[in-house]
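Need residues for this backbone.
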């Protein structure tokens, strides 16, 4: 299993991260789940980081509600929460772990410091596991 992003989608995430410096950029990826469990991202939904912080993020509640509604309307599923780390590696920080409550999503972190994106899952006991990210096209 892995999460598959197009090169174009990855570049859009990178661009959002650069544009929102020095704060963390954030958003959702919506897509489909294949029979083998592979997650395929079809749409990026950038969100406003209402915390305007370089160390953490929170979605604007109205935007979050609209994103969930839109995804349902187009028969996709929210498969990932992404955010950037402006000055640290692409890893789950203590703050990320504390705030990660969805055990069924992939958390993607793009590091501007190292120019890499990594995926993670978290279980109900707050154990973090790496999740493969495949860039296609």
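Answer:
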């Amino acid at each position: 299993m892995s999460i598959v992003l197009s090169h174009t989608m990855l570049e859009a995430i990178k661009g959002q991260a650069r544009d929102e410096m020095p704060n963390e950029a954030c958003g959702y990826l919506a897509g489909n789940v294949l029979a083998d469990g592979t997650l395929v991202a079809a749409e990026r939904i950038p969100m406003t980081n209402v915390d305007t912080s370089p160390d953490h993020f929170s979605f604007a509640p109205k935007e979050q509600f609209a994103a969930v509604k839109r995804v349902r309307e187009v028969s996709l599923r929210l498969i990932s929460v992404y955010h950037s780390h402006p000055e640290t590696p692409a890893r789950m920080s203590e703050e990320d772990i504390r705030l990660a409550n969805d055990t069924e999503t992939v958390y993607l972190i793009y590091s501007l410091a190292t120019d890499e994106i990594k995926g993670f899952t978290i279980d109900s006991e707050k154990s973090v596991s790496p999740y493969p990210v495949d860039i296609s096209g």
